[in-house]
Amino acid sequence: MKTLFRIASLLAAACLPLAAVPTAHAAPKKELVATINSNVNFLYPGRGVAAEDYNFGMLVYNGLVGINEKLELLPELAVSWSSDTAAKEWTFKLREGVKFSDGKPFDATDVVHTFALLADPALASRARSTAEMVDHIETPDPHTVKFVLKEPYGAWPSMLIERQLKIVPDGHSAEQLMKAPVGTGPFMLDSYTPGDRLVVKKNPNYWEPGLPRLDRVTLRIMPEDAAKIAALSAGDVDILWNVPLESIQELKGMSNIHLDEAATSTWDGFVLNNQVKPFDDVRVRRAFEKAVDKKKLVQFALFGAGAPTHTPIAPNSPAFNSALSFAPDIAGAKKLLAEAGYPDGFAITLNVPVGRPTRERAAVALQQMLKDVGVRVKLERVPYSRWGATIAGKAPFYMDGYLARPTLDTATYPWYHSSGSWNKQMWHFKSERIDQVLDQARLATDSAKQVELYKTFQEYAVEDVPGVVMYTINFATAYPDALKGYHTHPYSWMDLRNAHFE
């Protein structure tokens, strides 16, 4: 018995140090792995065309002006800006002491070079139209640039958040930057294996003190949604970027995973060709607007991950007109149709793009909503490979959608002004009062005045109805609770400067 007691005592004593002796905490990890859906096609930001390209640009480059997840403009490589009274000349004071990742000091010549590249037709940049708004750039000193625009433009600083307008170093061609990118951003390219992963490492010359807090970021190219969710659950990735809307509730239910949604101004709607019957009659267009229950569309098409809206101005914008109602008016819609000569409604075909699930779901719901006012809708699904050649800008009634734009002007003018580029392709709409208010808003430099003008624009838009914008779509990412300093951005890029693990 004594022997057994002695053995038990020794075993108990042997166990004490495991509980009693304090152990050192493991150091927080300094590397992060995030998913992206496809390859980064352009390492030079001026050629960027897809969200993956823009994410790389966000990690490696800076613009003159930035925008945070609250949609507030922030100084980046410019510390301040001002305009003349006509909003035609804009002066930007540049940040001093900034270096590119190769050690070259940043100055005004880099800004001039950046815009010269973007304006080159051979480059075919999506930002060429923005660069062509500039008549010339003056450089009074190494840390001042003055943009002299061809026409007054009150929202010029907001235009400079455009995804392609990252500053690149003078002396580097677009071709060179495609192979060896050089930026002022928090990270620099380490390696890239298309189809597998892209790796960036901390830029030792980065200008924000103490940032970035990570040493390395790996972007894993993972197109399959199920594989991404499994990798996040297993801890193999730290950020699941661009969560599928139908998976949001599943991820919200996972322990130790944070699902972060951001409201955006990306929108879906249906196009009404104002040049052809029956949509050449504004009463028919108003009837369609009144027949649609946009709140129900958000639930059916987006699984609740979005918000109803009247125009591309999103509900999270200070310029959104919250006084306008979303309540459908079936009786009012029937009355308008009868006044337009359609007391029994009519039959019409709605073209729907295959492979655009939010629009496919919305079309099914819309078919039922219009049935309530006597409009008999036949759905015709068209492969997206044939959409541009056969439907977009040609069919009288079809579903479509567009990504968020950088300014209120670029989100509205091209679609609603009679001279707008998208209006001429889509709904062929003209309203003198909308033209007037959009022209005034474009020139306004006082933000409060501009907000009031855009609220008035929305009042006119739901009455004159060129087409119907149904809702804006949320963007979501998911990541472990241990990741701090990161937030989902409405523009879908990953800002990882402050990201760190605890």
How are the SSEs placed, and which strands pair?
Blueprint: H1 2-20, E1 31-36, H2 51-60, E2 65-67, E3 73-75, E4 78-83, E5 89-94, H3 108-119, H4 128-131, E6 134-141, E7 144-149, H5 156-159, H6 174-179, E8 187-193, E9 197-202, E10 216-221, H7 225-234, E11 240-241, H8 248-252, E12 257-262, E13 267-272, H9 282-291, H10 294-302, E14 306-308, H11 330-339, E15 346-354, H12 357-371, E16 375-383, H13 384-390, E17 397-402, H14 408-416, H15 421-425, H16 432-443, H17 447-464, E18 468-473, E19 475-480, E20 483-484, E21 500-501
Parallel strand pairs: 1-10, 15-16
Antiparallel strand pairs: 2-3, 4-5, 5-7, 6-7, 8-9, 9-10, 11-19, 12-19, 13-17, 13-18, 14-18, 20-21
Characterization of the model:
- The protein is α+β, with helices and mostly antiparallel strands and 502 residues long.
- It contains 17 helices and 21 strands.
- The strands form seven sheets. It has a four-stranded mixed β-sheet with strand order 1-10-9-8, covered by helices on one side.
- Strand 4 and strand 5 (89-94) form a beta hairpin.
- The longest helix has 19 residues, at 2-20.
